[in-house]
Specification:
The chain has one domain: Glutathione S-transferase Yfyf (Class Pi), Chain A, domain 2 (Up-down Bundle), CATH 1.20.1050.80. It is 58% helix and 0% strand. The chain is built from eleven helices and no strands. The longest helix is centred in the last third of the chain and has 25 residues. Pfam families: VPS9 (PF02204).
């Protein structure tokens, strides 16, 4: 019976987690934060030093707690909003507001996503090539940040109309949350991995629980990345303590620990959040 339950746990969570992790693993540099709880537009989590999921840092010593990447604060979205105040950017704001005002109701998720992506693709190309305040900056990172800002500005205003718009989404969310809750009996042993102090996963759990606080795909993915970074650090610490510090981590190490974190977190509206990220993250920034 326990083996059947474990199989059910992996079958229930694997597809959701694999999709989120794959979308998140795009090399975005992130940092854990405690004070960004998704205000009116879902304030963007702060970028950190270059930290890419799957590229291990130095193993933590046995006396260290999971580390938090850090760097001087820099909010690229606020920079983007300041640039929108430039006179040359007034047509950008007008175009965005007009699109939101005219956005049709009654679209399926796929139709809405296609409508959004077509608009963002055309508007982004025009903005970066013809709008002076954006076109004059040829730095690749600055242009990427502008594209991210454009997506965030638009989707934060459409969120109420495109997130979990189908009543069936609420039923799917409730069903998945009940299934995850029913898996609370699962232990590290059931998943075939050495046990660790679950308090070390507290930050990972907290990040997963914050996914639903944010309105746009990238911010939701940042939460997933932050959680994965903590789990990665916990696993490296466990290797150090077991005397296997030189062994590289694998998916067989990572996925069971992620399942434990998801069961502990049981994130609200997980199904809707996964579907939202998959549908509305711009295809050019999906892995």
């Amino acid at each position: 019976m326990a083996d059947d339950g474990v199989a059910a746990a992996e079958a229930t969570l694997r597809d959701k987690l694999t999709l989120l992790e794959a979308n998140a693993n795009d090399g975005v540099a992130v940092v854990l934060t405690d004070d960004q709880q998704g205000a009116s537009e879902g304030l963007e989590q702060q970028p950190a030093a270059e930290v890419t999921l799957g590229v291990p840092s130095e193993p933590a010593s046995a006396s260290q707690t999971p580390s938090t990447p850090s760097s001087p604060p820099k909010n690229d979205y606020l920079v983007f909003k300041e640039m929108l105040k430039h006179p040359s950017a007034l047509p950008v704001t007008a175009k965005l507001q007009d699109f939101v005002r005219r956005f049709p109701s009654g679209l399926s998720r796929e139709q809405a996503a296609s409508h959004v992506h077509k608009f963002l693709t055309v508007t982004q190309d025009w903005m970066l090539s013809e709008v002076v305040v954006f076109a004059e900056d040829t730095d690749e990172e600055a242009r990427l940040n502008a594209a991210e800002g454009l997506e965030k500005f638009l989707l934060s205003r459409l969120h109420g109309r495109i997130f979990a718009a189908d009543p069936a989404d609420r039923d799917e969310d409730a069903l998945l949350q009940r299934r995850i809750d029913s898996l609370s009996w699962i232990t590290f042993t059931h998943l075939g991995i050495p046990p660790v102090d679950t308090s070390l996963l507290a930050l990972a759990v907290d990040e997963l629980q914050k996914i639903d606080n944010f309105k746009v795909p990238r911010d939701k993915l940042v939460c997933v990345l932050n959680s994965c970074l903590v789990i990665n650090d916990v696993l490296k610490r466990a290797l150090v303590e077991s005397g296997s510090a030189g062994r590289p981590l694998s998916a067989d190490d990572f996925l069971p620990m992620l399942i434990i974190a998801v069961v502990l977190a049981n994130p609200p509206r997980l199904q809707s959040n996964v579907e939202f990220v998959a549908a509305f993250r711009h295809p050019s920034r999906l892995v």
